[in-house]
C-alpha cells in the first residue's frame, strides 16, 4: 500500500537532519490569483450548473400542475338575541363583547361538516373526472363528456381509479384494480355495470363527440372522508380585520373554475345556514316569549288579586291622597271648632252683659257696635230678644229718671224686662248646650281622624309592597308582548347578519408555481452551486499554478518559467531546443541560462544538480534542454544521469543504457568509454548504466568525487539529473556537492506542500543557492501537461517506480484538462 506523500517527505527531512516547519512556511490569507484561476477553470461548470438549474426549473414548471386560488370577502355583523330583546345590560356587554366580537366561531362553522355536507349535496364532489394529457392529467370539472352514477356496497371501491376508454359509439372499456388484481370489461353506455359490491351506470353528456371518444379518461369515486380531507386541505378561512368583522374565504385547486364554484357555493350554503340558524333562533325566541308571557300573566293576575283585596279592605287605593284628605279635614275641623268656641265665649259675654243690664254703652249705639261678633251667633231670635232687652233697659232708665220704682209704668217696664231676660237666658242656655254638643262631636271626629292618620304609614308600606310585583309583572308583560310582535314581524323577513363584500371570481394566474420565482430559484441555485464549486475547488486546490505562488511560498530564488511544450506529444523527455531554437520554450531556457550566469559568474567550472519532489515534474526534460542551451553558448556540457533507479537521460537522446555512471563508479568502465555524444558538438551525456543495488553508497564513495574531478578537466558545466528527493535521499547527497542545486516544480501538477518542503531542505542543508524553476506553465494559468512524458515514480518507493503513463490525446481530453 502506498504511503502518504507528506509523511514520506517529512520522514525524508528528518532523515536528512531537517527541522520542524515554522510559521513562515504556512500560507495565509486569500490568494486572489488562485481564486481567479479556479474561477476561470470552473467557468464551464458554472455555466453548466446554471443551465442545469434553469433546466430543472423548466422541468418543474413543465411537470407541475398550476395551483389556482379563488377568494371572497365577507362582513359579519354578530348580534345576540338578548340584545335584540333589550335584556343585555352593561354587565352582559362587558362579559360578552369580547366573545361576540371574535369570529372564531364563524370560522369553525364555515369549516365544519355542516357546510361540507351541504357542499357535497350542491356540487358534484363525490366523483372526479380526469382526461390524460400529453404530460399531465386534467380534471374535467363541469366539462366531462360522461357522467357516473354508482351504488357502492364494498368500501374498497372508494378512492380507487377507474380507467375508461370509449371503444365505439355506444361501447366503452372499464378497467380498475380490485384486491391487487386488474379487472377489465367491455360495456354499453347507459347499461348498468354490475360487479360484486359495485353497480355503475355510465351515461354521456352533450359534450360527447368524436374527438372526446378518442381520449383516455379515468374517474375516482370519493367517500366522505376523502371529500372532507380535500376540503380541509384546500380551504382557508382567515379573519382579515377583527374590528371590522371581515372574513376571507379562499380555496386552492388545480382547476380555477372548481375553486371559484366552491368558494361561491360556500358563501351560498353559509348564507342558507345562517338564515336557517337565525330562523331557528327566532322560533326559539318566540317560543321562549310565549312561555314567559304565560308565566308572567299568571304572576300578574296574582299580583292584581292581592292589590284588589287590599283596596277592598281599606277602601282606598291612594294612601298618600287619603293622608292629604285627613289632614285637610283636621284643619277644617279645627277651624270650625275654634269658631264654636268663639261663639261659646261670645254667649258667655252676652250672658254677663244681660245680667249686668247694659248691652250697649249709649242709647244710640246698636247691638253690633256694642257686642262685635254677635252676627256670628246666627240666631235671629236671640238677636231680636237682645235688641228688645237693650231697648227695654234704656226705656227703664228713662222712666226711672222721671218716675219712681213703684210707679206702675216702671213696674210694667220691669216686668217686661224680666220676661225678656228669661227668654234670653233660656235661648243662651240652649245655644250653649248646642255649641258644647258640637264641640264634643268635633273632638271625637278629630280623635278618629288622628287615629286613622297614625295607621296610614302601615297601609302605605303594604300598598307599596303589593304594587311592586304588580308593576314589575305588568311592565315585563307589556315588553314581552311588544317583542313578540317584533319577532313575529322579523320572522317573516329574516335576513342573514353578513354581507358578501367581494364575491369569488375566476382566478387569472396561478399562485403556484410562480414562473419567475421558479426560474429565479433555479438561476440562484445554479449560481450558488457554481460558487460553491469554486469555493470547494479553491479550498481543495493543492497544486502550484503560477510563478507567483512559487515565489510567495518558497525562499528559493526563481530562475525562470518554462512554458508548456505543445508542438508534439512525447512519451519520454527529449531534446527540443536544437530543433526549435526560436520557440518560446527555447527562449525561456535561455533566460534561465542567463540567470545561472549571474548566480555563478565568478566560476568557470560549474556543477549543477536538477531534482524535484516526485517523478513526472520534468526534471529530466529541463536537464536535457538546459544542457542543450548552455552547450549552444559554446560551453562544453556533460549531463550525468544519477537517477540510477529509473534512468531517462539515454531515452531523451535515443541512446542505450548498457554502461554509464554505475559501471564507472564500480570501475568497470572509464569515463571516456561511457561518454556519449549528441547532435550538439559541445554537449555530451553519460547514462545511468545498469541499476545497482546500492545507488546511495556509490554516490557517497570517493570514486564519485574522482569522477567529478576528471569531468571538470574536460567540461565547463556538469549537469546532474538526480532522483526525486521526495522518494529517495540520493538527490540530497548530490545537491550538497552541487554549486547550484535546481528544484523543478511543475505547474498544475506539483503539490503546494512540496514548496514547504523546499524551505525545509534549505534550512536543514543550508542550501543558500537553491534555485527553483516553474515547469509546464501556461500563459493563461490554465492546466496543460505539454510535452506529456510519463511520471512513474508514484507516491511510494517501490510502488510504481518504474511505471509509465501513456500520453492522453483528444479534444474532450483537452477540454477536460482546461476546465477541470
Structure, described:
The chain is α/β, with parallel strands linked by helices and 820 residues long. It has three domains: 68-275, no CATH class; 319-492; 547-819, Rossmann fold, CATH 3.40.50. The strands form four sheets. Strands 14-21-20-15-19-16-18-17 form an eight-stranded mixed beta sheet, with helices on both faces. Strands 3-2-10-5-6-7 form a six-stranded antiparallel beta sheet, with no helix packed on it. The longest helix is centred in the middle third of the chain and has 85 residues, at 408-492. The chain is elongated and about 230 Å long. One of its GO terms (molecular function) is non-membrane spanning protein tyrosine kinase activity. Its EC number is 2.7.10.2. It catalyses: L-tyrosyl-[protein] + ATP = O-phospho-L-tyrosyl-[protein] + ADP + H(+). Residues 286-350, 396-459 form a coiled coil.
Largest sheet: 8 strands, mixed
At the first level of CATH, what is the class of the largest domain? Alpha Beta
Q: How is the CATH topology of the largest domain named?
A: Rossmann fold
Count of the domains: 3
State the main characteristics:
elongated; 3 domains; Rossmann fold; single chain; 16% strand; alpha/beta; 820 residues
How are the secondary structure elements laid out?
Blueprint: H1 5-15, H2 32-41, H3 43-63, E1 68-76, H4 81-85, H5 90-101, H6 104-110, H7 113-122, E2 127-132, E3 137-139, E4 146-152, E5 161-166, E6 171-178, E7 181-188, E8 192-195, E9 198-204, H8 210-213, E10 216-221, H9 224-234, E11 235-241, E12 246-253, H10 256-314, H11 319-356, H12 367-370, H13 380-402, H14 408-492, E13 498-502, H15 515-540, H16 547-553, E14 557-563, H17 584-599, E15 606-612, H18 619-632, E16 637-641, H19 649-652, H20 661-665, H21 671-674, E17 676-677, E18 683-686, H22 695-700, H23 702-712, E19 717-721, H24 730-737, E20 740-746, H25 752-765, E21 771-777, H26 811-819
Parallel strand pairs: 14-21, 15-19, 15-20, 16-18, 16-19, 20-21
Antiparallel strand pairs: 1-12, 1-13, 2-3, 2-10, 4-9, 5-6, 5-10, 6-7, 8-9, 11-12, 17-18
Helix pairs in contact: 1-25, 2-15, 3-15, 7-10, 10-14, 11-14, 13-14, 17-18
